[in-house]
């Protein structure tokens, strides 16, 4: 099952990357509504998200539904870290505490 858990975590990471790509596109000027929706970053981001969804479905072959919901929460941690590294967003105290609580919750679930 550990293989499928790692695959699941990979799918969450890919989904988080797609969110960062969408955010970078949203921060740019596009000139028109159509160009805002149909630019390479948006298309790639939705492609990544679709791929992540397929990977998640594959991982659910062995990952229990209850564990999947917990693993999905790692996306908040990924987005915070990627936002800091790529978008240069600040990690405020509340965000750090929230992410620590998420990690603690995941660990409690995994050990319980």
Task: Give structural notes.
With 112 residues, the protein is an all-alpha fold. 80% of the residues lie in helices and 0% in strands. The chain has six helices and no strands. The longest helix is centred in the first third of the chain and has 25 residues, at 2-26. It is flat. The mean pLDDT is 93.
Order of helices and strands: HHHHHH
Q: In DSSP terms, counting alpha (H) and pi (I) runs of 4 or more, how many helices? A: 6
Major β-sheet annotation: none
Number of strands: 0
N-C termini distance: 16 Å
Morphology call: flat
Gyration radius, in Å: 16 Å
Runs in which pLDDT lies below 50 for 5 or more consecutive residues are: none
Overview features:
0% strand, mainly alpha, single chain, 112 residues
Produce the secondary structure layout.
Blueprint: H1 2-26, H2 33-37, H3 40-59, H4 65-72, H5 74-86, H6 93-111
Q: What's this model, at a glance?
A:
The protein is mainly α. The chain has helices at residues 2-26, 33-37, 40-59, 65-72, 74-86, 93-111. It starts with a helix and ends with a helix.
């Amino acid at each position: 099952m550990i293989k499928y858990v790692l695959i699941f975590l990979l799918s969450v990471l890919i989904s988080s990357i797609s969110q960062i790509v969408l955010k970078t596109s949203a921060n740019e000027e596009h000139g028109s509504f159509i160009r805002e929706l149909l630019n390479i970053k948006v298309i790639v981001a939705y492609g990544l998200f679709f791929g992540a969804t397929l990977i998640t479905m594959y991982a659910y072959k062995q990952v229990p539904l209850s564990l999947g919901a917990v693993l999905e929460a790692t996306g908040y941690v990924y987005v915070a870290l990627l936002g800091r590294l790529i978008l240069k967003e600040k990690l405020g105290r509340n965000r750090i505490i929230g992410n620590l609580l998420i990690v603690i919750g995941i660990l409690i679930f995994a050990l319980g």
